Amino acid sequence: MAGSEPLKYRDRAPARMADGQAAVALALGAMLCLGLSDFFNKRAMRAGVARTEFLVVQSAFFIVTTLVLLPFLGGLSPSPWLALAIIAGVVTFGSYYCVLRALKDGEATVITPIYRMSFAWAVLLAVVFLGEEVTGRKLLGLVLVAVALLLLTATDRRPSKAPATACGADGMPVCEQPERPALAKALALPIAFAVVALVLIGTKSFLYKVGASHDAAAASFTLVQALAFLPVAAANARVVDGRVSASQLTLRHAPLNGVLTALASILLFLGLERGEAVIVVPISQLCFVVTALLAVPFFKERMTVWKALGLVAAIAAVLVLSSAIPLPWG
């Protein structure tokens, strides 16, 4: 009997390894779908699509996609843990609102790195409340994800020459710069919204993990989430626009995003069923790599040295988190 316990664990090791590999593959699928979604989202905003309309149509097609996939994912499975999906739907809308509010008055190069760090909040919640372990390998992977994000959103921050608006005592033009307290005050509110978005996005990922840990079905969970999101998005459109409508421009752009975000959510949930949030969530949030790569040929954005280094860091993060490369400490 003394030797039966080690044999038991040896027998389970291949299954755990297979689950881990499947979790990484699913996380990469979610990453790809999220990256494509962000790219098409950016294209829609450049085309002038109203964000309020976009969110309503996107969520409607999210629901349609989930309903289509439902029979292939085991059908509708009632569970008391689906109550978390309702919270996830409201939290998701709140995160969208805060991100947009932050980007309205703040610089994207400041706001984007802040809210994209949401994976760190999700990991913290998983460690504290679910007891997930942070090993040296996982910590290195998390650091590489953060480095990739910072490098891929880095821009030339050299100040531009401000127009001369006053003259000095010698008659020469003098550039008036905004006072530092006023500048700091102007940046404080957008940064605060970005931090709230970080917490909300990370909380949604954590809710996914909790639901997956209690055997809530992926399609059922994401469907309930979308059903909670849609009325909130419609109410927001009603308040902001005075009506709930969808222009032809919106209908050309939003449906694809609905399909992609539904696929990303289901893949993320399935990944969290098989793997730890400490690994799955950071990999899925590397979606900004896909968006950055597509932005170069389609939006004519430059591939800088910083972005290239960011891509290298992102690839290294995936390899480290997936245990694809050996490390001295295992």
Compact summary:
The chain is 75% helix and 2% strand. With 330 residues, the protein is mainly α. The longest helix is centred in the first third of the chain and has 43 residues, at 4-46.
Secondary-structure topology with pairs:
Blueprint: H1 4-46, H2 51-69, H3 83-105, H4 108-116, H5 118-130, H6 136-152, E1 164-167, E2 173-175, H7 180-213, H8 218-241, H9 248-274, H10 277-284, H11 287-298, H12 305-321
Antiparallel strand pairs: 1-2
Q: How is this structure best described in words?
A:
The chain has helices at residues 4-46, 51-69, 83-105, 108-116, 118-130, 136-152, 180-213, 218-241, 248-274, 277-284, 287-298, 305-321; strands spanning 164-167, 173-175. The protein is built from twelve helices and two strands; from the N terminus they run H-H-H-H-H-H-E-E-H-H-H-H-H-H. The protein has one domain. Strands 1-2 form a two-stranded antiparallel ribbon. 75% of the residues lie in helices and 2% in strands. Strand 1 (164-167) and strand 2 (173-175) form a beta hairpin. Mean pLDDT is 86; it is low at 4-9 and 156-177. By secondary structure, the protein is mainly α.
Which assembly state applies to the chains in this document? Answer: single chain
As laid out across the biggest beta sheet, the strand order is 1-2
Summarize the amount of helix as a percent range. Answer: over 70%
Largest sheet: 2 strands, antiparallel
From the alpha-carbon coordinates, what is the Rg to the nearest angstrom? 22 Å
Fraction in beta strands:
under 5%
Number of E strands: 2
- Low-confidence sequence ranges: 4-9, 156-177
